[in-house]
Each structure stands twice: as structure tokens, then as C-alpha cells.
Amino acid sequence: MGTKLAAIIVSSDRVLQKDKTNKSGEIAQDFIKNYGLQLHFSKVVTEGYTPVDNAVQSALVAGCEIIVIIGGTGIGATNFTPEVTEKYVSARLHGLETQVLLRGLEASPKAGLSRGIIGMTEHGGGSLIINCASSSGAVTDTLSVVFPLLPDIFRDCTN
Asked: Do 67 and 6 contact (CB within 8 A), yes or no?
């Protein structure tokens, strides 16, 4: 699979305002390190469509092949992570989304409230975008499902 360049985007006003620690972002960084990926950046952005969209654009321009977006997957007024992701995803991985949901439901019925999307920006290549709900458990569940499959995901890609 080779070394892949990764980015973490945390959409959280509470983390920005220091009302909450960035534990979820730290968990994602640990996954990236443990799977031998290269972290290009990890940033916290304010909630809303435009800040998340700008961060995703930055990651794509930088050549990041794995983009983990944490937060903004619910139904709140500032939760637009899935809408931003839909703009970029060409090949959605519904099966992985279902696996993440099933894993999450083992721990909490609130897992069903996440609208997170997982998919590739191009058929046969591009970047993998992974949405995670903001809790540390949700990030662990999501990345525990997706990261072991990275070699299979990128084996089917031509880039």
C-alpha cells in the first residue's frame, strides 16, 4: 500500500473554545501512527459547512489520501460534515458505513444519530474520506472498522 498521507479535521466549537479536550483527534492521530500513515495535518475548525469544506479542500490540494473528519455528523444546526463530504465523494462505501453503525450500536443507541459518510473521491482511486461522530468511542469504533481494510481499499485503486 505504501505510505499514505493523512489529514485529521475536527469540527468542534467546544474544542476551539477549550471547553472540551481534543481527545478524539488524539485517538485519530494514534490510529494514523499505528497504521504507518504520515500525518500531514491535524486541525480543529469551527462548526459549519464552509470551515469543514475549506479544510477538506486544503487536504485534497496537499495530496492527502486519507481524510478523517471528526464531528458535525449529527442533526444540529451547525452539523454539515456529511453534506461537505457528499460534495467530494464519488464512490460511497455504504457497507463500511453499516459496519461502523453496527459497531457503534453495540456501545450506544445514540450511534444511530450519526449521518457519517465514508467514500472515495474517485472510482478506482482518489482519496478516502471518513466521517466520525465526535465522541472518542465513535472515533475508535469508526477507525477500528475502516483502518484494517485500508490495504484492500487502496489495492482496488489505480493511484
From this structure: yes
CA distance 145 to 40: 22
The runs of H, that is alpha helices, within 35-119 are 49-61, 81-88, 94-107
Predicted confidence pLDDT, tens digits, the chain (159 residues): 578 999 999 999 999 999 999 999 999 999 999 999 999 999 999 999 999 999 999 999 999 999 999 999 999 999 999 999 999 999 999 999 999 999 999 999 999 999 999 999 999 889 999 999 999 999 999 999 999 999 999 986 654
Total Cβ atoms within 10 A of residue 134: 24
Across the beta sheet with 5-11, the strand order is: 38-45, 5-11, 66-70, 125-132, 118-122, 91-92
Q: Count the Cβ atoms, other than its own, within 10 Å of residue 80.
A: 20
Residues 6 or more apart whose Cβ sits within 8 Å of residue 149 = 96
Task: Collect all residues with Cβ–Cβ distance below 8 Å to 141 and sequence separation of at least 6.
Answer: 100, 103, 104, 107, 111
77: DSSP letter: T
Facing residues of 129 across strands? 67, 119
